[in-house]
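pasting for the record
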Amino acid sequence: MADDKPRLGRGLEAIFGENVSSVLEEIQHSHANNSEEILLELIHPNPYQPRIHFDETKIEELAQSIREHGVFTPILIRKAVSGYQLIAGERRLRAAKVAQLKKIPAIVLEFTEAEMMEISLIENIQREDLNVIEEAKAYDNILTRLNITQEALAKKVGKSRVHITNTLRLLQLPKSVQDLVLNKVLTMGQVKPLITLEDPSKIIAIAEKIVKEGLSARDVEKLIKDKKSNPRPQSPSTDYSYAEHLLSDKFQTKIKIVSKALTIHFQDDDDLNRLLELMGVIED
């Protein structure tokens, strides 16, 4: 472990630009003999884990392998105020619980809170199978917590700044649409054109149309383009209730406005003369 500390120190700058997942795997394999058996009940989830969904089928398959052969590669943890916090090895930890193990081999590293957050988020972002919404939330988390620019983040995770920007824009979509992407009902390509729309209700309606009709990303782009080039003419407002209220209050009688016609109600000749006087049509 001592050999790796310099590499993991100094804010992890030494491994930026590398594949963090590979670095973590290297630590786990090279220090497997130095692992400890830790009670599962003492290990708390990684608070900076951006991944929301895990493939339950793959977890069960891994659990079955663990039942037969045990856990080959130790997980990485750090000491916490109470017990330990997971750094890497979420699938193994979940599978070990499914396999009903009491303990799991683990390597204890001396990570600061900042290092814990940084390497957890970056390691997950660099995985190919991280959902694009999970990726967007991870980017947003890093930008907020580390107070860095998109340009700096792009260098840290080995992505282009344009990719960072486009991915972050997905968080502008209504939550229901984000959930469709999160649950792999829609792809980034299908929802990306929706970001240009301002009305959340229209975005949701089009997203539902995409799902119902199975529209491709190209179909969606064309649909949005057509809507913008041929906007539906707005029908003039036909709600004259406010004007009716003002006139009724002024003339103290019932007044209706329907189809560009104004109707004034009166009770008798005296009431009619009162109205005419108010309008200045006849003299007092």
